[in-house]
Amino acid sequence: MTDHAPVAYTGPQRVLSGVQPSGALHLGNYLGALVKFARLQHGQPTFIFVADMHAITVWQEPAKLAAQTREIAAAYLAAGLDPAKAAIFPQSAVPEHAELAWIFNCVARLGWLDRMTQFKEKSGKHKERSSVGLYTYPVLQAADILVYKATHVPVGEDQKQHLELTRDIAAKFNHDYDAPGFFPLPDPLVQGPGARVMSLRDGSAKMSKSDESDYSRINLTDDSDTIAQKIRKARTDPAPLPETLEELATRPEADNLVGIFAALSERTKLDVLTEYAGQGFGTFKPVLADLVVATMGPVTAKMRDYMNDPGEIDSILATGAARARQVARPVVDEVRKLVGFWGA
Ligand code: TYM
Asked: Is 211 helix (H, G, I), strand (E, B) or coil?
């Protein structure tokens, strides 16, 4: 090991992100992640994968996993990802993710992982019975990102801590192996009102696949009537919508609905307030429901079309995996040399 001041990475910029195939996608996934993927693909080279290796950190039915993987791919395509622009692939089809993850397991420190809040949330009271994979999950996530030397990672706010860890691993690897600037320190892209969509039943909990109440979330597979009913039943307070963001911030449920409206209509929350301040939820909820149905309806329909053509999805995934490997393999080969492995 030698001491080096951090040297900036000067390689190409690349976008990377992924979603786990571990349950139905919801509006939070759509606004926090999928919409951004589609926007970003037009700039830098983009890699969007289905995180099936992350999914098995908790039990997944083997007979269903491949179908769940195709479903996420269908959602990507329905949200506007273009396989001619972005490489779309299953994580497990690119073994370099796992190869780099092992090396990163030896770079990351136990103390860093002990601080990860998602492990605490997911393991709950049964820490001893959790898989070891659930614990080292963020290390695999760092490998997902750095195996492509990705510089920009569009995610929801809940992933920020994992991105911090990724930066720490990149910096320690560059330092320990005397390779200044080898890995970039990637930036999370979390801005916008859709970065943290909250439960429709509780403005202090995030919208989540694992919430027991289906009324807490809008699923990408919900039909128009279900969407409208869920918004009608969403928890709110009796006051009309306020004029300022400061007032809105003191009312989490109202804040959430305004945030969803803003994200779907690509406006700011203030802009939405300017239009609806003084109106009650009796007026605002039906307008919001119409907007959600109008935006999500076509996405859901396209997703169903893709799901009816698994052969097409499989061919997109296979092509995407081959393209991804072309970038990932040389990076892992360089890493093997830096680490000093035999034959590298
Ligand atoms: P996952 O599958 O839990 O969620 C996928 C994406 O959806 C975002 N998200 C939300 N955004 C706004 N509001 C919400 N309520 C909400 N819930 C979820 C997540 O932030 C995420 O962007 N660890 C990741 C998957 C992953 C990954 C990666 C992501 C594995 N490797 C490498 C980026 C880069 C996860 O569990 O996401």
From this structure: coil
Range of the domain at 220: 214-304
pLDDT tens digits for range 23-34? 889 999 999 999
Give the number of the atom of ligand 1 that is nearest the alpha carbon of residue 54: 30
What is the C-alpha to C-alpha distance for residues 96 and 146, in angstroms, rounded to an integer?
11
Among 177, 171, 18, 179, CA closest to 108: 171
Q: DSSP string covering 154-183, please?
A: E--GGGHHHHHHHHHHHHHHHHHTT-TTSS
**Based on the domain organization, do 161 and 38 belong to the same domain?**
yes
Same domain, 174 and 234: no
Instruction: Using the mean position of ligand 1's atoms as its centre, give its distance from the Cα of residue 241 in Å.
Output: 30
The domain total for the chain is 2
Tokens of 119: 């492990």
* Cα Dmax for the chain: 70
Cα dihedral angle (239, 242, 248, 254), rounded to 10 degrees?
A: 50
54 lines ligand 1 (CB under 6 A): yes
Residue 268 has φ and ψ, to the nearest 5°, of -90, 160
Please indicate whether residue 122 is annotated as part of the active site.
yes
pLDDT tens, position by position, 151-196 = 999 999 999 999 999 999 999 999 999 999 999 999 999 988 899 9
